[in-house]
């Protein structure tokens, strides 16, 4: 990046020169922490980046060097020029860089910054990448795909309701096979699972379309209020389906293979398997992404990009801490009772609704793990969608 | 290319809502004088600020996608003076400030020789003695459930690691705001508008704004309905308790009209007899010292001051007792609660009446649709039956017809 003399920060002292030299070294791939840095140098861009950006770049350099790679200078410049997204402290100064600073947030040793602060920078950069992929809500489909998706007359009338996280991939796959939902007087199949998983799915769906609270705060809020998140309240969903499609036309599904048999397909498609840390990263990226693309496009965009990239990654699936055991069991028993009392037919065993014992070491998103995933995504960013052209099927 | 941009970046609670309302309602009049206040809706510049800073705001950010670039484009397209005003801009980071200034056509160092825009930074400022309680109150009106004491603790944390402290100083620490926004703007183009003391002349603040924005000689409509009224101690305490009990169950789309607008702005702000929220007595020395350091810094920087930097010192500690919103007088809270219940009942009744009116309207519309779809012959028959039923002879004739039809039906 060419320096612009008129706009360069004044490099007034030893601390400033030391900070600029560190920034320049990081740009070239250095991994030395700030508190060990001793060289001095001159400004090479208009403003000295904040401690968050500099430390994030150092972490990227560390990850790259462990993998025998280098961080491209272009990526390094992107990080140094990035903003800090969301609420909280703005760009922080480096401790010792400007002894005369009397106002603003206290300068910090970037090595001691919480991972949360680095994630604020990383999430903004990943959101830019996701937005730049240009993946729309409706992917282009080939002629063969369109023909395959035409509704077969012998397919029974049905709709699938329940946790959005489970329903969407399932319906998308059925549509692609010509099993389009709908038809006259459809049977509504409510996809259910053990309540702990359903609650995790509710938070996951929320991470994709709203962002919002962390997993522990999400649980705490609902547990203390004594009710379930609306997207996890299976009894309410069943009532709602009964009102819409008729009381005798709702079936609760606890064994997806039985539903697959009914619909005449081999198996129902499952959502990507995202570990706890992966879901949290999606949640964080979704926030700045909300300012880059229209709200209605955000979930589809995140599913088409981040969810695919993170499939099978991000550690084990979320679990609920033992402290919420009473709440979870009470709610599961209520739902079990309401569904049994309403007499909905059940595919599978209704007792599967009841969660298993909760363990002491619950799986919660961990900032360090989330940051590791984010660093990986920055090193191997998602690329913009190629210009539309003939698909393989059409071309062959 | 716009020649001048008056960029008003805060601070909150300094009469900004009033100023923005005057600017918005006088857009056409201002434009006649070559001054553009680009905004298609009253909150357009707020949305632009959210976009610039990538801030979520209870769902409002949905409307903010691309709003800053659009605003900057309109400013670049205007040949004359443009005004941007939003108080949350105060918290922008250096990176965001650089992006904002560049998008407005600002050249390094404020150079205008090569067609660069002449950006004037305006910051309206008020003493911390009033700002600290006002900011807590603003938090409470935005769903916060923490106590006043907790808020004071968070803002006194030197690390500012909590988002509340980070936000407070981000929008209130005047020297730091000016360091971020003004680093590349000549000091003579940085204007500080101080808010006069509470007992100062009523129009003094507007006079100072008017001077800063060059609106002195313009005939503007200054009447306004929008303002950001302050609340008393029991009212603030009540809203905090409501937040604790109900904010989680209310979506932002419902919280905003019911709690902030109906209760806080339209009901509680009219209760002028309640004790006002103030700074706890033990914080006066800390505020005095801090403010002194600010005034020294601002004096040294030689910014253009409209008003008096001494205004920043605030009123001395009052002689009366401090009324703590964490332990408000129960009787006063009860009275405020009664007013709240009354307001909510009236609102519920109004909504019920509106629902009934809409139901009847819907019924009429449905009837009209059925009528429009009914064949002409059927309508003629209905008309004939109605006419016959209106007199004795007709009714008898109708009776004979129905008897005959009944026999026919049976035989069929």
UniProtKB/TrEMBL annotation, chain A:
The lineage of its organism: Bacteria, Bacillati, Actinomycetota, Actinomycetes, Propionibacteriales. This is Uncharacterized protein. It comes from the Bacteria.
Automatic annotation (TrEMBL), chain B:
InterPro entries: P-loop_NTPase (IPR027417). SUPFAM superfamilies: P-loop containing nucleoside triphosphate hydrolases. Residues 341-368 form a coiled coil. Keywords: Coiled coil. The keyword Coiled coil applies. It comes from the Bacteria. This is Sulfotransferase family protein.
């Amino acid at each position: 990046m060419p320096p612009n003399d008129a706009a360069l920060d004044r490099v007034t002292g030893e601390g400033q020169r030391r900070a600029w030299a560190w920034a320049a070294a990081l740009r070239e791939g250095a991994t030395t922490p700030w508190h060990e840095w001793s060289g001095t140098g001159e400004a090479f861009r208009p403003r000295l980046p904040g401690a968050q950006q500099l430390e994030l770049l150092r972490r990227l350099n560390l990850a790259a060097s462990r993998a025998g790679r280098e961080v491209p200078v272009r990526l390094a410049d992107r990080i140094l020029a990035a903003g800090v997204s969301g609420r909280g402290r703005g760009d922080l100064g480096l401790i010792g860089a400007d002894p005369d600073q009397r106002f603003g947030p206290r300068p910090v040793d970037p090595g001691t910054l919480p991972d949360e602060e680095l994630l604020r920078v990383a999430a903004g950069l990943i959101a830019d990448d996701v937005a730049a992929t240009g993946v729309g809500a409706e992917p282009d489909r080939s002629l063969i795909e369109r023909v395959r998706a035409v509704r077969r007359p012998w397919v029974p009338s049905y709709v699938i309701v329940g946790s959005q996280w489970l329903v969407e991939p399932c319906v998308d796959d059925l549509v692609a096979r010509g099993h389009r939902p709908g038809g006259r007087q459809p049977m509504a199949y409510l996809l259910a699972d053990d309540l702990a998983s359903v609650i995790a799915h509710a938070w996951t769906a929320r991470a994709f379309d709203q962002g919002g609270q962390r997993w522990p705060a999400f649980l705490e809020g609902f547990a203390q209020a004594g009710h379930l998140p609306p997207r996890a309240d299976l009894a309410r969903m069943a009532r709602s389906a009964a009102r819409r499609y008729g009381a005798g036309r709702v079936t609760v599904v606890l064994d997806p293979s039985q539903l697959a048999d009914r619909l005449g397909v081999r198996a129902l498609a499952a959502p990507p398997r995202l570990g706890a840390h992966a879901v949290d990263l999606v949640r964080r990226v979704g926030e700045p992404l909300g300012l880059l693309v229209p709200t209605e496009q955000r979930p589809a965009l995140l599913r088409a990009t981040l969810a695919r990239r993170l499939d099978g990654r991000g550690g084990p699936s979320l679990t609920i801490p033992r402290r919420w055991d009473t709440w979870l069991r009470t709610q599961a028993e209520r739902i079990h009772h309401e569904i049994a009392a309403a007499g909905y037919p059940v595919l599978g065993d209704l007792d599967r609704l009841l969660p298993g014992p909760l363990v002491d070491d619950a799986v919660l998103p961990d900032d360090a793990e989330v940051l590791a995933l984010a660093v990986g995504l920055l090193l191997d960013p998602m690329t913009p969608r190629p210009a539309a052209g003939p698909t393989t099927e059409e071309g062959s | 290319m716009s020649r001048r941009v008056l960029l008003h970046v805060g601070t909150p609670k300094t009469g900004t809502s009033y100023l923005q309302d005057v600017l918005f309602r006088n857009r056409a009049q201002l434009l006649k004088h070559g001054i553009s206040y680009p905004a298609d809706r009253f909150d357009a510049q707020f949305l632009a600020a959210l976009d610039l800073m990538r801030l979520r705001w209870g769902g409002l950010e949905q409307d903010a996608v691309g709003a800053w670039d659009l605003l900057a484009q309109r400013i670049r397209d205007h040949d004359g003076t443009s005004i941007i005003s939003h108080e949350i801009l105060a918290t922008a980071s250096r990176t965001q400030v650089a992006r904002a200034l560049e998008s407005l056509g600002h050249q390094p160092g404020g150079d205008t020789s090569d067609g660069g825009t002449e950006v004037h930074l305006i910051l309206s400022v008020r003493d911390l003695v009033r700002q600290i309680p006002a900011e807590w109150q603003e938090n409470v009106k935005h769903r916060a459930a923490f106590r006043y004491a907790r808020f004071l603790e968070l803002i006194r944390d030197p690390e500012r690691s909590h988002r509340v402290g980070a936000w407070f100083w981000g929008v209130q620490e005047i020297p730091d705001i000016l360091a971020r926004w003004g680093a590349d703007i000549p000091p003579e183009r940085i204007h500080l508008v101080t808010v006069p003391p509470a007992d100062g002349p009523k129009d003094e603040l507007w006079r100072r704004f008017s001077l800063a924005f060059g609106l002195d000689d313009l005939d503007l409509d200054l009447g306004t309905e929008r303002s950001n009224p302050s609340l008393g101690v029991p009212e603030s305490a009540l809203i905090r308790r409501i937040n604790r009990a109900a904010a989680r169950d209310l979506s932002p789309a419902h919280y905003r009209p019911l709690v902030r607008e109906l209760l806080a702005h339209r009901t509680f702000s009219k209760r002028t007899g309640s004790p006002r929220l103030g700074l706890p007595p033990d914080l006066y020395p800390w505020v005095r010292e801090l403010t002194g350091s600010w005034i020294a810094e601002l004096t040294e920087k030689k910014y253009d001051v409209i008003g008096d930097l001494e205004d920043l010192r605030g009123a001395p500690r009052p002689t009366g007792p401090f009324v703590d919103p964490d332990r408000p007088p129960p009787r006063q809270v009860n009275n405020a609660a009664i007013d709240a219940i009354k307001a909510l009942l009236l609102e519920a009744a109004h909504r019920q009446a509106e629902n009934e009116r809409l139901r009847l309207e819907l019924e009429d519309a449905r009837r009209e649709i059925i009528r429009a779809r009914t064949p002409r012959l059927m309508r003629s028959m209905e008309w004939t039956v109605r006419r016959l039923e209106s007199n004795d002879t007709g009714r008898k004739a109708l009776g004979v017809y129905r008897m005959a039809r009944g026999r026919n039906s049976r035989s069929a």
